[in-house]
Amino acid sequence: METHFSLDLGDLVLEGRIDQINPFGGENAVELLDYKTGRPRSQKEADSSLQLSVYALAARDGMKMKPVRLAFYNLGDNEPVYTARTPRDLAKAVEEIREVAEQIRQMIFHPTPGFVCKWCDYQPVCPAHEEVL
Question: Using only C-alpha atoms, what is the Rg of the chain?
Answer without folding.
Answer: 16
